[in-house]
Design a protein that fits this description.
single chain, alpha/beta, 16 helices, disordered C terminus, binds glutamine
Length: about 500
């Protein structure tokens, strides 16, 4: 079988009818990876034997009924390596337990299969900060897949996975989903367990699904959502059945477009896609109006203070004693800490640890960290006020389509500023979904996906999925697939023609 032609929901139906077995699905995914991944670079590792063993025991009647799911390599799976895309862990650390989301995934009949590439410790927007390999955009090998969950998005869009899990601290599920033309859901803060997700910024991190359709994403979300006593920030509220509610209409809903999101700096084609989406919603009976989120502009600054502050504390655990790499060139313990971290962390991680340590240090705390927290409160209040009158917000997922590999690599500020549309949802703990909304054409024959976002109040996942499903069904964008033939040519592992070492 060529599973690329089927959705996750369709494969589940075939499993339920016993027309195929879970082992066959795992093998089909494995073959697709073998065929293309040396060129695409979505996966870091995978354990076929373990997946086949689980497939043998899979219960076809369960929610996911034997579906293999790819996992970003910062989510712990018992007995499997977890590198976080970093030299400090790669080849030197094996997770001793399953993450809460993985436990739920297994309980729902999902089979963890394959670990996907990411920006080191999920810090980045292009997956170029991975210390281990480059990942390409399935729509164009010269473009980034987005990040930090770029491997998960490339695997899904590149026909190498039916669905995947990623993590989203400031957009890392939604932006790569948008760049690769798939669907990505960032659940509300606390909706999915963070237990076993290697922490980047604990007050912002959430695990969520990436898939090829809204319905597939809803299925994966349903499998992993819910309370986990091992994560103290996990919410105990009941999880609505988003699959059950998906097909209900949205007539009479009110959707806002934030005025601050459509100002200069966004690609004109993204703006057109946004306008076209508003018309699609209006035809479905939705009232679309402009709204204001006055503190939007400050959100990037607030995020990069809070996220780096938290990262500087979270990453203190990588000291050469407890986890992973330890320098062999040290004479005493202090030198061991320093050399271990110098050898193990890449430039972006070091930059953020330095920045985060600085904004927390005495004398600067009030000026930066405290101020950022105050801004966070104002940003959250902007959303609370809008959601008292509106069911959802419609926004771009990113200011433009995927950029070229290397294009922004030396300009971290440019990369940070492009997170403006995804960061606010994390600062305010909202749920947000990104999905294909159109195509970007460069005039030279290159087309790249453009992603849209729906943002909702905390715990409105079922309603955002429903809105996204209604939009999706009224459009054709989500059915478009990149041509994967070019990834079939075998490239040598060390020289892939673009000078990027893998
Ligand atoms: N691009 C953002 C950053 O670099 C978001 C990353 C994420 O969501 N993990 O921090």
């Amino acid at each position: 079988m060529r599973f690329e032609d089927y959705s996750l929901i369709e494969i589940r139906a075939l499993l339920r009818k016993r027309e195929i077995t879970a082992a066959e699905v795992v093998r089909a995914v494995h073959e697709a990876i073998e065929e293309r991944d040396s060129a695409l670079g979505a996966y870091l590792t995978r354990d076929l034997e373990a997946a086949l063993e689980e497939a043998g025991k899979a219960d076809a009647g369960a929610l996911l009924g034997g579906i293999p799911v790819a996992l970003k390599d910062n989510i712990s799976v018992r007995g499997q390596p977890c590198s976080c895309g970093s030299r400090i862990l790669a080849g030197k650390y094996t997770a001793p337990f399953d993450a809460g989301a993985v436990q739920k995934l297994r309980a729902a009949g999902g089979i963890p299969f394959g670990r996907t590439n990411l920006d080191e410790f999920a810090m980045g927007s292009s997956t170029e900060n991975s210390a281990l390999q480059a990942t390409r955009n399935p729509w164009s090998p010269d473009h980034v897949p987005g990040g930090s969950s770029g491997g998960s998005a490339a695997a899904v869009a590149g026909g190498e996975a039916l669905g995947a899990l990623g993590s989203d601290t400031g957009g890392s599920i939604r932006q790569p989903a948008a760049f690769c033309g798939c669907v990505g859901l960032k659940p509300s803060y606390g909706r999915v367990s963070r237990y076993g997700l290697v922490a980047y910024a604990s007050s912002l991190d959430q695990i969520g699904p990436l898939a090829r359709s809204v319905e597939d994403a809803a299925l994966l979300y349903q499998a992993i959502a819910g309370h986990d006593p091992k994560d103290s920030t996990s919410l105990s509220a009941a999880v609505d059945d988003s699959l059950e509610l998906l097909r209900d209409g949205v007539r009479g809903w009110r959707v806002g477009i934030p005025r601050e999101y459509i100002q200069e700096g966004i690609d004109p084609q993204v703006r057109q896609v946004l306008e076209a989406a508003a018309s699609v919603l209006e035809e479905a009976g939705v009232a679309v109006e402009e709204v204001s989120l006055p503190h939007t502009e400050q959100s990037v600054a607030a995020y990069y203070v809070i996220a780096t502050a938290e990262a500087s504390a979270n990453l203190a655990r990588f000291d050469g004693v407890r986890y992973g790499h330890r320098s062999e060139r040290a004479e005493d313990v202090l030198e061991m800490y320093c050399r271990t971290r110098d050898e193990g962390f890449g430039a972006e991680v070091k930059r953020r640890i330095l920045l985060g340590t600085y904004v927390l240090s005495s004398g600067y705390y009030d000026a930066y960290y405290l101020k950022a927290q105050k801004l966070r409160t104002l940003i959250r209040a902007d959303f609370t006020s809008v959601f008292s009158k509106f069911d959802a917000l419609l926004a771009p997922a990113a200011p433009g389509p995927a950029f070229r590999l290397g294009e922004c690599a030396d300009d971290p500020l440019r990369m940070y500023l492009a997170d403006i549309f995804t960061i606010p949802a994390n600062l305010a703990g909202l749920c947000a979904i990104s999905l294909p909304g159109g195509l970007h054409r460069d005039g030279q024959g290159l087309t790249l996906p453009i992603g849209l976002q729906f943002l909702g109040a905390p715990l409105s996942e079922a309603r955002m999925l429903r809105l996204a499903w209604n939009f999706e069904q009224a459009t054709e964008w989500w059915k478009l697939r990149p041509s994967l033939a070019r990834f079939r040519e075998t490239r040598s592992a060390s020289d892939d023609g673009l000078g990027i070492s893998r």
